[in-house]
Design goal:
heterotrimer; A alpha+beta (242); B mainly alpha (389); C mainly alpha (158); A: alpha+beta; Alpha-Beta Plaits; four-stranded mixed beta sheet; three-stranded antiparallel beta sheet; 8 helices; 19% strand; B: 389 residues; mainly alpha; Formate dehydrogenase/DMSO reductase fold; two-stranded antiparallel ribbon; 14 helices
């Protein structure tokens, strides 16, 4: 028989228990609902100064080992008469900036590169065990405690953004600072970019200014013919960029 | 620092798939090829090759048992490899291959060998003593029925298994080709022809190795070589070789003609870093010379001794050539940048987990396993007296 | 019926296969991680683990709570878009416990050049100098205030 007295005790107990249960659920513990976000990045070539701050910040935030890169900078020199074959360099991934160019004339610019967090990513397609995957908020992540280190994903990525971590011997790549964006912060590279060339975009957020930018400007992705559904959008990208 | 010519994405400079990933398709190719040769007699009634039937099956098993080993040495976490069977990703060719391999090992090879050798197993379980007796008794699965009726059942079921085995062998090695051919990021690999080329080159290598093993075993046992058998095997080698060569040339000609964005980069790589392994080893020595030699033997009457020598040389050249082919695909596919602007080099260590010594050891190991298998399951009736090895 | 008698060994074989298959199913049930398949073909707990990693950069919002004066100077100047940690390094630990971690002042002789050293590939309108010819050896901070670096004509800041 449920008496009023019992209810007075039961209801608050149930409420407390409910909160406990919900706290155990990943989403509400962080106040972050995965289904409300769809992450991408805007890379603005006409603002990039090749300072390498993003590369250093990423390495710092994510303990990226020396000689491997979750993000990197490339410097392009497109000569006037040979548009199709640019000269590209990336000394230590651009981590320490770039030495003065020997190039004369032509078109010169920097291109930041990173994981494109593709919607139809070839890397998650080929992973034999489900160690790399596409999250509900559209970030491609690697489960390092499940990865076999077979390196099929590294072969399958058209953008060269993956590597094998020399110590953990598992595949690694840009995680879009998942531990930051789920806490309302921006990625380490965007936080440290001094010119705003790199900006995180939430494509499900109508108030996101970057989302607005993407809707009103011509943007491109790398290797569109491979139909990867890449979400690293470049503004002012030259056709010679590989 | 690995020397880089031109520009490569920073993470591409170090090769990911080593010589062990060259050994692996080579070994599975030998399995598929040896089995196809065995099936020639069983299904297509090419009676001339019957002396190689059992040897081919045992060779296939020996190599099949070694096939997972290069992968285990290569994986960053081999202790997690069971995950491929626990949570296979159905969209991954590599995961699905785990099951194709298992199917082929359990249902095709082991079953066919068991059915074919069952009579000998039962007899040996009764005639031997000690540990050997225990082994044979275990292999009989407790049944000692080798009556005419039982053997006829074995024959029928064995025929069905071989019939299923042929597309299974195609699947086994075609899948390996698909693992490469389906990678759209890599233009050197990405091609619908890849599974077919892999399969036919596998058949060539499998036939060659059985031919060589047969001639070697007859020599060791001091028995006369059945020339009608070897001539027929060489003929089939020639036919498959012609198809294989045609396919590879088709791929090459189409690439040169279409000259897409990757062509200039790949062409340069072929003329420099891959010249020796592709042009000299794979094409000229490994394909053209065997085709011409065996072809000429079909046209002109060549004395037996010379024919045998020719088969020895061609068999060895074929094996080297097909290894070179695997090398050119796997290593070649990683030497150029996906930006098509640069090249790296492959430095293979001698003594490391994925080094030359391990690769060589894994290539030699199947022969030891084969020797052990031939002792347990003698392929030839009189070979109880053979000294083995 | 003698047909079945002659196929007895096949029945034994089938039983052997069935046993192996059963063992496989048992292994599967035991070893597959419990959270696998929760959101897709991956370990559901991986999402929680990857979301919970510690952060190194606190983000510029955190600095504003205590260092409002510097922030106002910065917002009024050319470096308004340059976040604090881009120059001062990762400071999440300092935010957590300001007294225990004192951030090092960066050395402007090294700090400013990656951005401001002249390079043909930098956008034309971006302020860049050839450092060897620019200051006669003087370090950047001797003339420029890092939080608001633009000098008016005839002005030197110190």
């Amino acid at each position: 028989m449920i008496t009023r007295r019992k209810l007075l005790v039961l209801l608050p107990a149930a409420a407390a228990a409910w909160e406990y249960v919900m706290a155990g659920t990943p989403e509400s513990a962080l106040g972050y609902n995965r289904d409300q976000h769809w992450w991408g990045m805007l890379l603005n070539i006409d603002k990039c100064i090749g300072c390498g701050s993003c590369v250093r910040a990423c390495a710092n935030e994510n303990d990226v080992p020396e000689g491997y890169f979750r993000t990197w900078m490339e410097r392009y020199h497109v000569s006037d008469w040979h548009q199709e074959v640019p000269q590209v360099d990336s000394p230590n991934g651009g981590k320490n900036g770039f030495p003065p160019s020997e190039a004369q004339g032509g078109k010169n610019f920097f291109v930041p590169k990173m994981c494109n967090h593709c919607v139809d990513s070839p890397c998650t397609q080929v992973c034999p065990v489900g160690a790399t995957f596409h999250t509900p908020d559209s970030v491609v992540l690697v489960d390092e405690s499940y990865c076999l280190g077979c390196r099929y994903c590294i072969q399958a990525c058209p953008y060269g953004c993956r590597f094998l971590h020399p110590i953990s011997r598992t595949a690694q790549k840009c995680s879009l600072c998942y531990h930051r964006i789920t806490r309302g912060l921006t990625t380490a590279c965007c936080e440290n970019c001094p010119t705003g060339a790199r900006q995180l975009a939430d494509l499900k957020n109508p108030d996101d200014p970057i989302h607005e930018f993407l809707k009103t400007h011509s943007v491109q992705v790398l290797k569109p013919h491979l139909a990867t559904g890449a979400k690293a959008f470049y503004y002012d990208l030259d056709g010679s960029v590989r | 620092m690995v020397p880089v010519d031109g520009f490569m994405y920073p993470n591409e400079v170090e090769l990911q798939w080593s010589v062990l990933i060259v050994v692996y398709p080579y070994v599975t190719g030998l399995v598929a090829g040896a089995f196809i040769l065995a099936s020639l007699e069983r299904i297509f009634h090419v009676t001339a090759v019957k002396p190689t039937y059992r040897l081919a099956l045992l060779t296939a098993l020996a190599f099949l048992l070694v096939a997972p080993l290069p992968l285990q040495f290569h994986l960053g976490h081999p202790e997690r490899s069971l995950e491929m069977y626990l949570t296979p990703n159905r969209s991954s060719a590599m995961a699905m291959f785990g099951f194709v391999y298992l199917w082929y090992l359990m249902v095709v090879i082991l079953l066919e060998i068991w059915l074919d050798f069952r009579r000998e197993i039962v007899l040996l379980s009764q005639s031997t003593t000690g540990l050997k007796r225990l082994l044979y008794r275990a292999l009989t699965l407790g049944s000692s029925n080798i009556s005419e009726g039982a053997l006829r059942v074995d024959e029928k079921v064995g025929w069905v298994i071989t019939l299923i085995g042929i597309p299974s062998a195609f699947l086994l090695h075609g899948y390996v080709g698909f693992i490469f051919g389906s990678v759209k990021a890599n233009p050197w690999w990405s091609s619908p022809l890849m599974p077919v080329v892999f399969l036919f080159s596998a058949m060539v290598s499998g036939i060659a190795i059985v031919m060589l093993l047969y001639m070697a075993m007859m020599k060791i046992r001091r028995q006369p070589i059945d020339m009608r058998c070897v001539d027929t095997v060489a003929q089939y080698l020639l036919y498959i070789f012609i198809i294989d060569f045609a396919l590879e040339m088709l791929d090459l000609i189409q690439r040169i003609y279409e000259a897409d964005e990757s062509f200039r980069s790949l062409d340069f790589m072929l003329h420099t870093r891959l010249f020796f392994s592709q042009v000299i080893l794979q094409v000229v020595l490994g394909t053209v010379v065997p085709i011409l030699t065996i072809g000429l033997i079909q046209i002109f009457k060549v004395p037996e001794k010379l024919r045998r020598l020719a088969y020895w040389v061609c068999g060895c050249l074929t094996l080297v050539g097909i290894f070179a082919m695997r090398w050119n695909v796997v290593i070649g596919g990683q030497l150029f940048s996906k930006s098509f602007l640069g090249y790296t080099t492959y430095k293979v260590d001698l003594i490391s987990r994925e080094g030359e010594l391990i690769a060589a050891a894994l290539l030699i190991l199947p022969f030891f396993i084969l020797a052990a298998l031939m002792k347990i399951l003698p392929p030839w009736v009189e070979s109880e007296a053979a000294s083995g090895d | 019926m003698s047909k079945f008698k002659d196929a007895g060994h096949l029945v034994r074989l089938a039983i052997a296969f069935a046993v192996v298959f059963l063992v496989f199913l048992l292994i599967r049930a035991h070893f597959i991680p419990k959270s696998f398949g929760q959101y897709g073909h991956y370990r559901g707990n991986a999402l929680v683990e990857l979301s919970s990693k510690p952060i190194s950069y606190a983000g510029h919002q955190a600095c504003e709570d205590c260092h409002g004066d510097v922030v106002s100077m910065k917002t009024a100047g050319k470096h308004t878009g340059v976040n604090c940690e881009a120059c001062h390094g990762a400071l999440a630990k300092h935010v957590e416990n300001p007294a225990s971690v004192t951030p090092q002042l960066p050395d402007t002789a090294l700090l400013c050049l990656p951005c401001h050293e002249a390079n043909i590939a930098k956008p034309k309108n971006f302020p860049q100098v050839v450092s060897a010819e620019h200051s006669g050896g003087a370090v950047c901070k001797s003339c420029h205030q890092p939080h608001s670096p633009l000098l008016q004509p005839g002005e030197t800041q110190s």
